[in-house]
Amino acid sequence: MKLIILAAFISISLHLLLFNDYELTKKNEVPKETLKKEKKATIAFVKIKKEKIEKKVAKKVEVKKSKAIKKKIIKKTKKSIKKRAITKKVSKRLKKAPKNITYEKKRVTKIPSQKKVKALENRTLEDFLSQEDPVDKKVLSQIQRLYGREFETFTKVQKAFIKKNFNSFQVITQRVLTRLGYPELAIQKRLSGINVVEFLFHPNGDISNLRITRSSGYAVFDKYSIKLIEIAYKNYPRPKTTTLLKFNVQYRLY
């Protein structure tokens, strides 16, 4: 009997304990509907926050745009006000001024550059030289023999200078030859000959690249011709531009 009572007592106490635990778990459990509601509420709250932030940003952008537009409008209005004021002043002055007076615009003359001036000078020189008298045919034939096709590459000024002064170069050189005298060796051996001299003649009166392009066949005459040119060139007519000169130097015993 004692065992039955104990067993009954233990079973009753166990049932009570289980019952209490069940009630506690029921109390602590949160219904699913409330959880769902809470989740929806948090999502809605986040959306509202985002919308508010976006609205604030949009307002700031609009405010900045409106300020920039206002500044532009203010600048334009200021410019227009200044223009109106200037036009009013000018109109007042014109009204006050006498009607008979006529105002002329000042002509600004531009000073031409040095390059343009030189180009104009060369053109005028070329035009002037091209209108000169025709050159003797003998002189032209001599020039063509000495220069060949190279003569066609020269400018009008260079060509005109050579044609005009070709004879004078030879005459001045021959005068210096007669003044200095015939080479002694050539006199002793009774030699004669012709050589061709070539050099660049500059506008300041200097010469360069002096040489014999066609030898007479005698070293005495070739060396003597270079000495003659070094003395005679000071009396030659000077060119306007650097010009290549070629002419004959003759040696004859009479």
From TrEMBL:
Keywords: Membrane, Transmembrane, Transmembrane helix. It comes from the Bacteria. Pfam families: TonB_C. GO terms for biological process: transmembrane transport. One of its GO terms (cellular component) is membrane. It is a single-pass membrane protein. It is found in: Membrane. Residues 167-254 form the TonB C-terminal domain. Its main location: membrane. InterPro entries: TonB/TolA_C, TonB_C. This is TonB family protein. It comes from Poseidonibacter ostreae.
